[in-house]
Amino acid sequence: MMQWYVICAVTLILVLLFLWLWQQQKQLAEHLRQKIQTQDKNLLDLKAELQLQHEAIHELRTGSLGVGQKVQTLVRQLQETQAKQDEMEEHDPDSKLYGHAAKLAQQGASIEEIVEECELTRGEAELLIQLHRQSN
Q: Which residues form a coiled coil (predicted)?
């Protein structure tokens, strides 16, 4: 009969141990499930953030392409304007004299030097020198 009590006690201990292990396993499974849910949410958040970053990069690329095209257009227009100005200066002998006079004024030439070299009136030479001083 003593064996019967020992067997019952051991069986009871084993059942209690089994129940305790089963409870521990359930808690661990729940804990892991919660961790997986948290990581899934974090992953979704990161994917959304990555998508926003991709969109921002796309907008920047598109914007920079537009700016690049505008710069190219402005450079082309500037070159065309410069070419037209050069052409006008070549066909207008007076503009050559004024261009030379402006360079002399920038170099610090006197009014008399400008009048003699460029065949300008004294008033024109004075005006060029005043304009040069104002621009500096």
A: 29-91
